[in-house]
Amino acid sequence: MPSSNRILTMSHAIAEGIANEMRSDPSVFVMGEDIAAYGGIFGATSGLLAEFGEGRVRDTPISETAFIGAGVGAAMAGMRPIVELMFVDFFGVCMDAIYNLAAKNIYFSGGNCKVPLVIMTATGGGYSDAGQHSQTLHATFAHMPGLKIAVPSNAYDAKGLMISAIRDDGPVLYMFHKGLQGLAWMASPEKAATEVPDEAYKIPFGEAKVVRPGKDATIVTLSMMVHHSLEAAEQLARDGIDTEVIDLRTLVPLDRDAVFKSVAKTGRLIVVDEDYSSFGLTAEIITSVVERDPTVLKAKPRRLAYPDIPIPYSRPMEQFALPNAGKIAETVRETVMKGH
Amino acid sequence: MSDIVVPEGLWDTTKTPEGIVGNWFYRDGSMVEAGAKIAELMVEKTLFDIVAPAKGRLHIVVPKDGVVKPGTLIGRIDGV
Amino acid sequence: MEPTKEQLLWMYAVMAKARYFEDTMAAAYMEGKSPKFDIGAGPVPGEMHLSAGQEPCAAGVCVHLRPEDTVTATHRPHHQAIAKGVDLQKMTAEIFGKKSGLAGGRGGHMHLFDPKVNFACSGIVAEGTGPAVGAALAAKMRGTKAVAVSYVGEGAANQGAFHEALNLAALWKLPVLFVIEDNSWAISVPKAKSTAVKDNSVRAAAYGIPGMHIADNDTLAIFAAAGEAVERARAGGGPTLMEIETYRYYGHFQGDPEVYRPAGEVAALKAKDPIERLRKEMIGNRGVTAAEADAVLAAARADVDAAFAFARGSPYPAPAEALDHVFA
Questions:
Q1: Looking at residues A47-71, what average pLDDT do you find?
Q2: Residue of C108, C83, C81, C84 lying closest to C94 (CA atoms)
Q3: Based on the structure, what is the number of domains in chain A?
Q4: What integer is the mean pLDDT of C278-288?
Q5: CA-to-CA distance for A184 and B41, rounded, in angstroms?
Q6: Which of A123, A324, B30, C275 has its CA 20 to 30 A from that of A180?
Q7: Distance CA B19, CA B48 (A)
Q8: DSSP B44
Q9: Direct distance between the N- and C-terminal alpha carbons of chain C, in angstroms, rounded to an integer
Q10: A172 and A35 co-located in one domain
Q11: Residue A17 within any structural domain of the chain
């Protein structure tokens, strides 16, 4: 449990995790766009330039394919680079370096090469940044063998997952939701900022967390939707429905056991994801349970995700598309009703 | 008892008279060290760090998102 | 190449209109975001990238274009959209997220599409270069005299897509003009820290095409250079790379604290404002009267005021309209 009474926003927790590792390991360095003097557009590298200098905290040109490819090469040559892809939506210009190089080189070398690369990237919408700056794309990357994926929902987990990511000898995609960073100019849930210990600590990959125990229904979710799900659970509790909320924390490796154990207990599964609905995370979680033992389910499994549309700019349309506490609570209620 | 006050001259008040408390980094009632970064103010989108003027127990007067001007008392430290 | 009086007044009108639009938009953007700057709040939520200071790059090039010519632009598109003749009311309504907007509110300020004047923009750096090459290819295949213009920033000149597009355009000798608006800053990173060469126009040599460099945001120099490049393209002479040294008065995005920008830089730039410079030149040396200039200015501002009134008065789309127009 956290030992400090100091509260960090998620952005500061990420920066502190990186700083902890940079202090103890000279091979760790950071590069990306506007990560030096600016501290990262979403604050993930704040304070690092002042402490570590330009050699280890490098602003790059707008050349993602080059600097992510360089990250792969530097990692294979014995460094431990952390590279920031400013918005996950920009993956289009550098996907080859991520999924044909970073994700596959360990395999291609039969384990003889290591690729200790962390790619960190900002995800998420809800503040009117439109279709090329608001995506989450969890499934796009989780689908690619060879890439581990960490998705923190709060500051405490963010620091621990970042330290685990840096210490991993393989490539890790670290996806942080902009709306959880605690930036004063973008609204964030109160529980995203938490007490965070000063010292370095790890959170293991492949371990989901039961953030709210319950017996009537299981919500499986991640990132921003953890907070909306907890709010939904409070609404449901007033109606006498006791909802368990599971925060996946990492997509790869995926803690299928924790999901199954919970659904075996409650019998009702609702998966909530900010990413597009079809061919994605929600389908994967539901299938994980159904293919193991469909008889644990007392009701149809349900999913609540982004509709299969580009993300609209105009506020009423964007809010229509996004899952939120009210929609989550309604979906859970439906699973508890007879005939569902 | 030490006051935590928004400094004068931190930003151009002719252009923007007010800012807000962007974040508190300790809960109300926490023990803080002198010089620790305890809050950040935000004026438009510019952030300013506020450090504890003394060691002691923090009492928050203006919570997160509260409006501030130069001279606003945002908190106090109970020296122990 | 010297502009006619008509062209001078056209450019002045476009630049004044763009400037007034951006200044009006800056104020509208801040509504609902004070004293707490919440990026999602107010009638114009999200990001906003304003082009005040960069007007000559739009006016000096687009004066040579016709509706059938294509322009692709970036996340900082308003001045180019205005210069290309995009429907101002629908564009403003789009930025306000209204149903009467160019895309019914689906695109917003970074994704403005007006097929009537062949204008489109995108928020991914350098990704407009490919489509401009494509429009030029279509013109060549159809045997029209249409040309394409791709606007990028100096940061984009380090992105892969830029280089691929230049090579392809040169290889196939396509009628496209690549215009780099060099405002020195890619968010917080100055050109000297991102670009291996001092002057991006020299990169044209790598593709065997002409490279032109225009200093100091000079509208008439841009006019002359762009005129030459557009004529060359229409005559089948292939692509040109043009780099314009320009300035942005506002931050990268509205709310940008600009801690990276030296104090006094913006004030110094405003002292040589390009709209004022053009006005002085055309009244002093080119036979335009102050009354003519003022009339054009007043009309430009009236158009902008009407566009904002239209946008504010228009209704929002119904929420479920989000599901429309995913496919053709």
A1: 97
A2: C108
A3: 2
A4: 96
A5: 8
A6: B30
A7: 10
A8: B
A9: 44
A10: yes
A11: yes
Please check whether residue B49 touches C, CB under 8 A.
no
Report residue C261's pLDDT band, with 50, 70 and 90 as the boundaries. Answer: confident
How many structural domains comprise chain B? Answer: 1
> Which residue does chain B place closest to A6, by CA atoms?
B26
pLDDT of A1 over the 70 cut: no
Contacting chains of A (3 CB pairs or more, <8 Å) are: B, C
pLDDT at C24 over 70: yes
Catalytic residue (choose from A133, A138, A227, A228): A133
DSSP symbol at A312: P
The counts of H helices and E strands in chain B are 0, 8
From residue B16, alpha-carbon distances to A192, B45, B65, B73, C270 in Å are 29, 11, 16, 19, 21
Phi-psi region of C5 (alpha: psi -120 to 50; beta: other; left: phi over 0): alpha
Statement to judge: residues A190 and A255 lie in one domain: no
- CATH number of the domain encompassing residue A259: 3.40.50.920
Per the structure, the complete domain to which residue A288 belongs is given by: 209-338
Same domain membership, residue A122 and residue A267: no
Residue range B17-34, pLDDT digits in tens = 899 999 999 999 999 999
Expressed as residue numbers, the domain containing B31 is 2-78
Hey, is A143 helix, strand or coil? coil
Mean pLDDT confidence for C289-307:
97
Is A143 designated active site? no
What's the CA gap between C85 and A108, in Å, rounded?
Answer: 54
A221 touches C at CB < 8 Å: no
Q: CB distance from B22 to chain A under 8 Å?
A: yes
A203 occurs within a structural domain: no
| CATH number for the domain that contains residue A153 | 3.40.50.970
Contact B23 A185 (CB under 8 A): no
Q: What is the CATH number of the domain that holds B49?
A: 2.40.50.100
Q: Is the pLDDT of residue C143 over 80?
A: yes
CB contact under 8 A, C107 and A131: yes
ipTM, 2 dp: 0.93
C-alpha A100 chain-centroid distance:
22
Whether the CB-CB separation of A333 and A322 falls below 8 Å is answered with no
pLDDT (0 to 100) of residue A4: 59
Contact C257 B44 (CB under 8 A): yes
Position A1 in a domain: no
pLDDT in tens, A80-132: 999 999 999 999 999 999 999 999 999 999 999 999 999 999 999 999 999 99
C251 contact A CB<8A:
no
Residues A225, A179 share a domain: no
Peptide bond into C35 cis (omega under 30): yes
